[in-house]
Every structure is written in structure tokens, then in C-alpha cells.
Amino acid sequence: MAKKLVAVFLMCLFVMATFHVHEAEADEAQFKECYDTCHKECSDKGNGFTFCEMKCDTDCSVKDVKEKLENYKPKN
Question: Given this model, what pLDDT does residue 21 score?
Fold first, then answer.
């Protein structure tokens, strides 16, 4: 009985992890699009690579977190 319970528990963890990975891939694509656009615009303004990398990483991370907080729905 205990082996079956452990197996069911592990399967549930696997399914939940699979959904989380799929969600992370979507977030990654959005971040990359934001970062690429920002970096190109920043470089076109004559700023250096490192400055643009730091600026765009920060700006896109903040944008990503802000969207997640706005779309957050507590589970009740």
C-alpha cells in the first residue's frame, strides 16, 4: 500500500513539474523578445554592450514580474 501511495505522489509531482516547465518556456520567450528589442534600441542610441545588457535585463525582468503580479489570482 505504501509503495502505491509513493508512486501516486511521485506521478503528481511529475505532472505539476511538467506544467511548470511549459509555463517557464513561454515566459522565457517573452523575456527574450523584450530583451532583444530593448538591446537593439539601446545599442542604436550609442550605448555600450554592457550598459545595454544590464539596463535591458533589469527593465525586462521588472516588466515580467509586474505582469505576473497583475495577473496573479490567489488560490482559495
Answer: 46
Q: What b-and-e string marks burial along 13-41, b requiring 16 or more CB atoms within 10 Å of the CB?
A: eeeeeeeeeeeeeeeeeebeebbeebbee
**HEC letters along 24-43:** HHHHHHHHHHHHHHHHHHHH
Cell of 30: 517573452
pTM of the predicted structure, to 2 decimals: 0.59
56, 42 contact by CB (below 8 A): yes
Cα distance between residue 60 and residue 63, in whole Å: 5
pLDDT per residue as tens digits for the range 13-30: 666 665 554 455 557 888
Pairs from 4-7 (Cβ < 8 Å, separation ≥ 24): none
